[in-house]
Specification:
- There is one protein chain.
- The protein has 277 residues and is an alpha/beta fold.
- The protein has a domain of 133 residues: D-Maltodextrin-Binding Protein, domain 2.
- It contains 11 helices and 14 strands.
- The strands form 3 sheets. Strands 3, 4, 5, 6, 12, 13 and 14 form a 7-stranded mixed sheet that branches.
- Helix 1 packs across helix 8 and helix 3 packs across helix 6.
Length: 277
């Protein structure tokens, strides 16, 4: 398959997409500024949900996709190895309340930028809190979300930068860890079945490793953008975020899929179709 751009022209390298949030930066730095910048054509968009749409519509060969979408998009495979996840506290996926206990929350505004985190918050409430709040889709504007709901799900860079005064903030990876003892995977590289051979020419693991080697450059680039200290950003990238799909992370992913299916968030539970890197 030849990749087709918006103008209907063929491109000679695989076309990929990824979110531009800080948590994806080490996975895509090599494609944007490093040694692999000529090996792909890369599109970036703030919302992970948009990256899933591009893959589903066949506008890219591969994309860094919210993991829940593997169970929803037909005829795709997962590139094994690299991921965006967290073993405990993630910091950039949070549920914010008006100083309320989770058991008392009756309505939740869900960030439209998200797919996996939306499913995760539903799983946590249904499976572990035994509660079914009213769910509302909303643009990621925390003040507006909390005006109409008891709680708000916020993801990505906005989740790290809002004022915390008079709010109670629940870290979603921490909640998952508390109830399951496992890490959580938020996104992975996925490819369309017909594009797998093209995409296999791209070494996503080498790209990840190169990005991590240049974490100081990434920190410098995002420091002014997010108005966070270099120490906060460095800790986030090297300690809060996990970029490797190890056994514990994989176990967390498999449990998430099972619970998502149990609670009607995905139509079926299809087995993993891996592309080895």
């Amino acid at each position: 398959m030849k990749a087709i751009n918006e103008k209907g022209k063929e491109v000679s390298v695989p076309r990929i997409a990824a979110s531009s949030y800080l948590n994806t930066a080490p996975l895509i730095w090599s494609f944007l500024q490093g040694s692999m910048r000529d090996e792909v054509e890369i599109l970036t968009h703030e919302a992970p949900a948009r990256c899933a749409e591009l893959l589903a519509r066949g506008l890219v060969d591969a994309s860094l996709v919210p993991v829940i979408e593997y169970q929803r998009i037909p005829e795709i495979a997962v590139l094994r190895g690299a991921c965006v996840g967290s073993r405990s506290r993630v910091r950039s996926v949070v549920l914010v309340t008006k100083e309320m206990e989770l058991k008392d929350v009756k309505s939740i505004a869900l960030d439209t930028s998200s797919r996996t985190s939306v499913a995760l918050v539903r799983v946590i409430f249904r499976e572990f809190i035994s509660s079914e709040p009213e769910w509302k889709r909303a643009e990621p504007d925390l003040q507006a979300m909390l005006h109409d709901s008891d709680a708000a799900l916020i993801i990505g860079d906005p989740a790290m930068t809002f004022p915390r005064e008079e709010l109670r903030v629940y870290d979603m990876a921490s909640l998952w860890r508390e109830h399951t003892g496992l890490g959580f995977v938020f996104a992975m590289w996925m490819a369309r079945d017909e594009s797998v051979e093209r995409v296999k020419t791209v070494d996503f693991l080498r790209a990840r490793d190169e990005g991590i080697e240049h974490v100081e450059e990434i920190v410098s680039a995002y420091q002014e953008k997010l108005n966070l200290s270099s120490e906060e950003l460095r800790t986030y990238l090297l300690e809060n975020i996990c970029f490797e799909l190890g056994e514990e992370m994989l176990a967390g992913l498999e449990l998430f899929y099972k619970l998502a299916h149990k609670h009607g968030l995905i139509p079926s539970l299809k087995p993993m179709k891996w592309v080895e890197q």
